C-alpha cells in the first residue's frame, strides 16, 4: 500500500526543513500539507503565516490545504486556561485540537499516516506531541509519525533555509494569552492591534502585501528578492482636537510626539506656507495645519523634529479655545521591506510602494501590480525591466532612501 502522509503545518519556518526531511525519509509516499492554526490571532497573522506556508509547499511540489480560521472555537476550548504557562494545559488543548482535526482530515482523504511540523520547534515538548499524536492515531486507525526533525542538524538546516527563503519569522506562537504574559509591561500589545484600515509602514498588513506580490511573481517564474531594513516606526494610539468644545475631524502628522495631558491653548500666530495655513499655539510647541490636501500626512522626507502637528480642513477662529490630546508610540525596531522583481540592474524599472495612510488611502492595489507583472513578464525575464516596490513610503520615502544607500555601497565595491 502506498503511504499517504498528511502533515499538519503551523508556519513556513517550521515547515521549510521538516517537509524536506519527510520527502527524504518517505521518497515514495504521497505527502500533503494541512495548514490549521485556530490559536493564531489576529486573522492578518494567520494569513501571513499561511502565505509563507503556501510558498514553501509550492516550491517543494506539495499540495497544501488551508484550514478554516476558527478562533472562536479555540477560545471556547481554552476557557479557564488563560493564565496557564507555556507548555502548560492550554498548550495541550491546542495540540489536541490541531492534531485531531488533522487526523479527521487524513481519515476523510484515505491517508494512512499523519504528523505535524510542531515537532520541529525547539519551543515545543517533543514527548507531549508524540503522546498526543499516537493517542489520536489509535482513535482513528492511523499511524502518527513522531519524527524528530531537530536531530542531526535539523534546527540549523531550518534556520539556514529560512534565511535563504527570506521567510517571515513570527515573534510569538500565535496565542494571545501567551503574548499577554510576554508583554506584561505594555499598556497595549501592538501585535494584536490594527492601527487604522490601511497598511501602515512596518505593519503586518504591509508585509502581507509584499508576501502576496512575491508569491505571485514567483508563480510566473520571476526572480524575486526582499531587502529588509530597520527604522524608527510610529503609531498613533489616540488623538482629540476640540475647538470651542466642539470635536474637529483631524489627522496627526506622523512622528508627532505625545502630549502628557490635556493641552488647553489658543492661537499665538498664523501664517501661510505652501498649500496650507499654519497655526502656532501658545503652549506645547504644537501646530495645527489647515489644508484640503490629504497628502500633507504623507511625509516627503524623514522628520527631524517631533513637535505635535494636527491637520484639519476646518477653519479655526483666531480667538478659539482649543483642547488637544495626543498619545503616540515610537517603535525603535520597526522593519519594512523593499521588494525587487527581476534583475536589479535592469535598464528600466517601474516603481510602486507597499504602505498606505492609516485610512487606506494613497496606496496601490495589489491586483494592478499583478496585471503589470503578467503583461510585462517577458521583459522582466529578459532583464530589460524590473519592478521595485518600496517600503515605508509615507514615513519620508525611507525605502527609496535605503535603496539608494545600497546602490552606493555596490558602486564602491
Please, could you describe this protein's structure?
This protein is 34% helix and 24% strand. A hairpin with a 2-residue loop joins strand 10 and strand 11 (276-281). Helix 4 (89-108) runs parallel beside helix 5. The chain folds into three domains: 4-192, Rossmann fold (3-Layer(aba) Sandwich), CATH 3.40.50; 204-231 and 331-412, 3-Layer(aba) Sandwich (Aminopeptidase), CATH 3.40.630; 233-330, no CATH class. The protein contains eleven helices and 16 strands. The N and C termini lie far apart (58 Å). Strands 6, 7, 9, 14, 15 and 16 form a six-stranded mixed β-sheet that branches. It is an alpha/beta fold and 413 residues long.
Give the helix/strand layout.
Elements: E1 4-9, H1 12-25, E2 30-35, H2 43-60, E3 64-66, H3 71-77, H4 89-108, E4 113-116, H5 126-140, E5 143-144, H6 154-165, H7 176-182, H8 204-219, E6 224-243, E7 246-247, E8 251-252, E9 263-265, E10 267-273, E11 276-281, E12 287-290, E13 309-312, E14 322-341, E15 348-353, H9 366-375, H10 377-382, E16 385-390, H11 398-412
Please outline what is shown here.
The protein has 413 residues and is of the alpha/beta class. Helices cover 34% and strands 24% of the residues.
What is the CATH domain class of the largest domain? Alpha Beta
Q: Radius of gyration, rounded?
A: 25 Å
Termini separation = 58 Å
Shape: globular
Can you say what the CATH homologous superfamily of the largest domain is? HUPs
The secondary structure category is alpha/beta
Q: pLDDT average, as an integer?
A: 91
Amino acid at each position: 500500500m502506498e503511504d499517504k502522509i498528511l502533515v499538519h503545518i503551523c508556519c513556513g519556518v517550521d515547515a521549510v526543513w521538516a517537509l524536506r526531511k519527510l520527502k527524504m525519509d518517505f521518497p515514495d509516499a504521497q505527502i500533503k500539507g494541512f495548514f490549521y492554526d485556530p490559536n493564531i490571532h489576529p486573522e492578518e497573522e494567520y494569513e501571513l503565516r499561511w502565505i509563507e506556508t503556501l510558498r514553501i509547499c509550492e516550491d517543494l511540489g506539495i499540495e497544501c490545504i488551508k484550514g478554516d480560521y476558527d478562533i472562536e472555537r479555540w477560545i471556547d476550548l481554552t476557557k479557564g486556561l488563560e493564565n496557564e504557562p507555556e507548555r502548560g494545559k492550554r498548550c495541550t488543548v491546542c495540540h489536541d485540537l490541531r492534531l485531531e482535526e488533522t487526523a479527521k482530515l487524513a481519515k476523510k482523504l484515505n491517508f494512512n499516516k499523519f504528523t505535524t511540523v510542531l515537532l520541529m520547534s525547539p519551543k515545543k515538548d517533543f514527548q507531549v506531541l508524540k503522546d498526543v499524536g499516537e493517542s489520536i492515531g489509535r482513535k482513528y486507525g492511523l499511524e502518527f509519525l513522531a519524527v524528530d526533525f531537530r536531530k542531526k542538524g535539523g534546527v540549523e538546516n531550518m534556520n539556514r533555509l529560512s534565511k535563504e527563503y527570506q521567510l517571515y519569522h513570527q515573534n510569538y506562537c500565535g496565542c494571545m494569552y501567551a503574548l499577554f504574559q510576554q508583554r506584561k509591561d505594555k499598556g497595549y500589545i501592538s501585535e494584536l492591534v490594527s492601527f487604522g484600515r490601511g497598511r501602515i509602514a512596518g505593519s503586518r498588513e504591509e508585509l502581507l502585501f509584499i508576501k502576496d506580490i512575491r508569491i505571485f511573481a514567483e508563480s510566473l517564474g520571476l526572480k524575486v528578492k526582499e531587502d529588509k531594513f530597520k527604522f524608527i516606526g510610529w503609531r498613533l494610539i489616540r488623538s482629540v482636537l476640540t475647538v470651542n468644545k466642539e470635536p474637529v475631524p483631524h489627522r496627526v502628522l506622523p512622528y508627532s510626539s505625545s502630549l502628557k495631558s490635556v493641552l488647553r491653548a489658543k492661537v499665538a500666530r498664523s501664517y501661510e506656507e505652501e498649500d496650507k495655513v499654519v497655526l502656532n499655539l501658545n503652549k506645547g510647541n504644537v501646530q495645527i495645519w489647515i489644508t484640503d490636501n490629504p497628502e500633507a500626512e504623507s511625509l516627503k522626507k524623514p522628520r527631524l523634529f517631533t513637535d505635535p502637528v494636527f491637520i484639519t480642513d476646518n477653519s479655526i477662529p483666531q480667538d478659539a479655545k482649543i483642547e488637544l490630546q495626543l498619545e503616540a508610540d515610537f517603535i525603535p525596531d520597526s522593519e519594512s521591506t523593499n521588494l525587487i522583481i527581476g534583475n536589479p540592474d535592469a535598464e528600466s524599472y517601474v516603481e510602486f510602494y507597499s504602505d498606505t495612510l492609516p485610512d487606506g488611502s494613497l496606496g496601490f492595489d495589489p491586483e494592478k501590480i499583478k496585471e503589470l507583472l503578467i503583461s510585462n513578464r517577458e521583459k522582466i525575464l529578459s532583464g530589460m525591466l524590473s519592478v521595485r516596490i518600496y517600503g515605508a513610503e509615507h514615513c519620508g520615502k525611507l525605502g527609496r532612501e535605503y535603496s539608494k544607500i545600497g546602490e552606493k555601497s555596490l558602486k564602491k565595491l
